[in-house]
Amino acid sequence: MGEQDRELDVAPEWWRWATENLLRGVPERLVSEQLQAAGVSSVQAKELLSAIVGSPIFLAARPFARAARQHEMLARLKQRMASTALDPTGIPRRSGVSAAELRDVYVAGNMPVILTDVVTRWPAFGRWTPAYLAETFGDVAVDVTTGRLSDPDYDMHAARHTESTLLRDFVARIDGARTETNDFYMVANNRVLERTSLGALLNDVVLPDGYCAAQRLLGSSALWLGPAGTVTPLHYDTSNILFGQVYGRKRYRMIAPFETSLFDGARAMYADRDPEQGSMDPVLVKDVVLEPGDALFIPVGWWHHVRALDVSISLGINSFPFHNNFDWYRPSTVA
């Protein structure tokens, strides 16, 4: 297009503008009218549009642009429909959800739900406290993340902040925290259930029939333990997760994957926006507090930001008895 650009004497920004609008499906007639309104002669506009639509590059880009428009329309439809809910920022609380309903309604529908009668049936509920863990497993060496406040990307760099300590000493550190802190935390990446005798804790977890594949529970569960004030930044996961809140409370802010503006600036699975720092408008944020005994179903792809409101013990499980690994989005592949 370089030689034609010079021959037509049309500024490069008009070439770009016309190409973008044609790829968006704007009729050539309307594009031509706008060009002429901006001072481009009718002859130049006609030749410019002819050069663009006849370009092999434009012809190759057109089907991709058409697919992008279709997905944009679908995302806008989902956004508008989500906003019509009676409580668009809430998450339904349910009891008595069978494995079939969980799968057909919430997994297949990619919708979060708080299950109020799952964790409360675990022997863990009422038993797991920091004191119990320290007394029963105090001599177990566990990996925890520390020095998180020194690194704005602490969650992405968890391996850099990992150190080993006795569980008894870690609980004492939690007990000694006089104020909320995000500086130290036992997070899922440390995989303490698999690597230590803490795996015995799963004997205190009894899920409804059909909820999970019991033989994979050990390798597909994660224990979280930390003080009030710990924060997991806004991110998504590539699997569905059942998150059981055993002790303390956590505040969840969740955003559906059809809010595609969060892709902009994302690194790995982390968004570059913080629901605690300024407005998230126009993105719709679901904002809920998990109480002790609640289980939150987190659908794959849903962005979520988590803050512990109290000293907290949580268990994440993703050993569902169906395919549950969705490598659905990589920021490096979306320009």
Automatic annotation (TrEMBL):
Metal-binding listed as a keyword: yes
InterPro entries: Cupin_8, JmjC_dom
Residue span(s) of domain JmjC: 196-335
Needed cofactors: Fe(2+)
GO molecular function: metal ion binding; oxidoreductase activity
Domain of life: Bacteria
Keywords per UniProt: Iron, Metal-binding, Oxidoreductase
Protein name as catalogued: Transcription factor jumonji domain-containing protein
